[in-house]
Structure formats: structure tokens, C-alpha cells
């Protein structure tokens, strides 16, 4: 059984199942695909539950709004007090304060549950947090907690260190969710984010521990370093082990879309032994190698997928990154790029994608720069 970590008066599984990248019936990118393969996805949930995973995470827009319904239906077969369900309020989708109530009620209806164990203000950065404050989003969720519809209040974060300091000091938080992995430990200063939350006594839920799968599919020279140090361990296990080695992390969310991925994570987080000093140094070395490949830090979350021109942004970046990491030759990359129906040339630089990118990527400039230079 997977390890569990004490949170308040309960125990939460060290491994959590994220429901943003479930298996789907069509090859369209999973994050923006509403056609969830219920049979395959149910097998993943069942395997997780049977091995002690009790934390399940979803959000209003995952799988075009179908993730909440899926996980709610899937968990109905299990006793309600045997698992925790996390959901999120997307403030950027609210045009008026009244929309918070509409979205929350829709989430209850989709999932079919009586309350959310963990409820987050979603994807906070400077802009989203300012809107939350303007609309009274924290007080709204606090009211839901008083009504017994929410048990723990938190936020997921995609901003600067200064943004985080302001958010932490603004309200009492039960927990926070940050992007943390051995690449972003320095690249996005997750190290400082971790310390700010730890010093404030706020437990951490980790998202993107394998960076949307990128840390399971490394450049060949980076992969060789890991294999040399632990030939019997998977590449992804290094990323999971790095995150789990920090004391203030209570749950690590992984968007597992196969039973093999689930088993690998279970192996890593059962009877867990933290990293030693040498293993931390190996991860630091691998991060340096990855950065030298000049990849675009896209995790494929598809928050940018509502491009008014339909540009397939994450697919374009994926082809570029696979070329840079050596998975594609230049010929293969250009051949793959030709099959993208709406490419970078359709971009009108409206900036909408940049506003929604959790990674802070300057998407229009990347499309006009690196992508244009390579594929035009």
C-alpha cells in the first residue's frame, strides 16, 4: 500500500491521482479532449484506490468539463469517507461575483458529491489573485466551508515569489498547491516557494512533479546520467522521489494515464526512502543538461487551447521540444509539423494565450521566434 502522510486529523496518500490527463478514445491531446475512455480510466482509479491512494484531484475545465463528472461517477462505488476529492474555482472564467456560485453549484452537480474535501482558488498569479480579492473569492469559499460544502481551503499557484508572499499573507490557508520538480526547483524558483509555504506552516500539494511527462522523456544525455546511477529505476521515479523527499509535501499529484505509470509511481512511493545527497546532485546535473537543450517549458496543460484562431500551441511546442531533446531528427520534426492543421502562421499575437499560460511562456514571441525560425 502506498505511504500516507498526516494532514490535520486525517491521513492523505503520498500519491494523488490528477484527472487532467486521463486516457481518451481519440488521439486528440488528452488535456483538451472530452472523450474520456471510461473503461481504461476506471481501471486506473480502481488500481489507485486498491493500493491506498485516497486523494483525487479535478477542475472545472479539465477534459473540457468532463473530468468532474467522470471522477464523481467513478468514486461512487467507494465509501464517501474513504477518499478525498479536490476541485477548484477558475476565477478567470467568472465575469461577475455571481458566477462563482454558478460554477460551484455546477461542480457539485457534476461530481454528485456532498462536499469538497479540498477546494482551491485555481491558478493564482498576480492578475487572478487581484480578481479573487475584488470578487471576494476567499470569503465565498469560507462561506461554503461554514455551510459544510468545503472542508479545506487552498490555492494552486503559478506566479512570482512576490505574488506568493502576498497571497500567503492575505488569508489563513489550509494548504497550497505548487509546481515543484527538480527542473523547476531553480527554473521557476520552486525552492523559494517551498520555503515560503513551509515557513508559513502551510502544507503543500505538488502538481507537475514530472512536468507533464517531460521528466520521464529526457534528452538522451540526461537519461544516460540517471541510468548510470540507477539502471533498475525508471526515469520518472527520479522526479517523484525528488519531490517526496521534502518534509512539507503531503501529496504528489500525478496525471497517470496508464496502469504502467500507476504501478511505477506506487513502487516509488511505497515504503518510501528519501533521496540522499548524491541523488540530489544527480538531479541537479540532469536539470543542467535539460536546460542546455533550449527547450520551451511547456507542460501540455492546454490552458492556452482557447486560442481564437485555433493555433495548436502545445502540439507545436511538443514537436519543437522533441527535436531539441533528440527524439526527432530535423526531418522527422518538420514532417510532424506539416500534419498540424493550424500552425504558428495563424497567430495574430492577441496575447490571450500568454495570459492563461501557467508557465509564464511568452507564447506569441516563441511562435514568432524559435518556431518560425525552424519551421518556416
TrEMBL record:
Residues 338-366 form the 4Fe-4S ferredoxin-type domain. InterPro entries: 4Fe4S_Fe-S-bd, 4Fe4S_Fe_S_CS, AKR2_Oxidoreductase, NAD(P)_OxRdtase_dom_sf, NADP_OxRdtase_dom. GO terms for molecular function: iron-sulfur cluster binding; metal ion binding. Keywords: Iron, Iron-sulfur, Metal-binding. CDD domains: AKR_Fe-S_oxidoreductase. PANTHER family: D-THREO-ALDOSE 1-DEHYDROGENASE (PTHR43312), OXIDOREDUCTASE (PTHR43312:SF2). This is 4Fe-4S ferredoxin-type domain-containing protein.
